[in-house]
Design goal:
Shape: globular
Number of strands: 4
Number of helices: 5
Distance between the termini: 55 Å
Largest sheet: 4 strands, parallel
Strand order of the largest sheet: 3-2-1-4
Order of helices and strands: HHEHEHEEH
C-alpha cells in the first residue's frame, strides 16, 4: 500500500525539520549580520530544458537577498570560464548581485568560518535537485522576518 504525502512527512523525525531550520537561519543572520546563499543556475533560475517553467519567485527572492547584502554563490557544473561568466552576467542582469564565486570551478573555496575545510560553506542552498521548494520557503520566511524587523527599527 502506497503512503500518502502526509504520512511520508509524518515519518520524518529529525532535529532540523523546517521550523528548526528557519530558527537556525535567523540565528545565523543575527550572529554574522548576513547569510551565504548558494544557488544553482539551470532549472533553478533558468529554464534550461525550455519547458516554459516560471522561475520568477526564486529570482525575486535572490534579488531580495542581494539587497540585504547576503553573499551569493552561483553553483554550476560548467568548467568553461566564459560560460560561467555568462551565467554570472545573466544573474546580474536579473538583479542578483554580490555573486562571489563558482565553487565547482574553484575547488579551494572556503569560508571565513571554516577556512581549512574543503567543503563549500553556505547557510542555505537553492537547487532544483536539492529540495528547492522547502529551501525557498525557509529562506523566504527568514528574509521576510529580517525585512519586518528592519521596518520596525525605522
Amino acid at each position: 500500500m502506497k503512503k500518502s504525502d502526509k504520512e511520508l512527512t509524518m515519518d520524518f523525525n529529525h532535529p532540523f525539520g523546517k521550523e528548526a531550520c528557519k530558527k537556525r537561519l535567523l540565528e545565523e543572520y543575527h550572529k554574522y549580520g548576513k547569510l551565504i546563499v548558494a544557488f544553482d543556475f539551470d532549472n533553478t533560475i533558468f529554464d534550461y530544458h525550455n519547458t516554459g517553467g516560471d522561475y520568477s519567485c526564486v529570482i525575486e527572492l535572490l534579488k531580495e537577498c542581494s539587497l540585504l547584502g547576503f553573499e551569493m554563490i552561483l553553483f554550476t557544473t560548467d568548467e568553461d570560464d566564459y560560460k560561467i561568466m555568462a551565467k554570472q552576467t545573466i544573474c546580474m542582469r536579473l538583479g542578483i548581485a554580490n555573486i562571489t564565486s563558482n565553487t565547482l570551478s574553484a575547488p579551494n573555496i572556503s569560508s571565513s568560518i571554516f577556512s581549512k575545510s574543503k567543503k563549500p560553506y553556505y547557510n542555505i542552498l537553492l537547487d532544483d535537485r536539492a529540495g528547492l521548494e522547502e529551501s525557498y520557503e525557509i529562506l523566504k520566511y527568514v528574509v521576510d522576518e529580517i525585512k519586518l524587523n528592519q521596518q520596525g527599527n525605522q
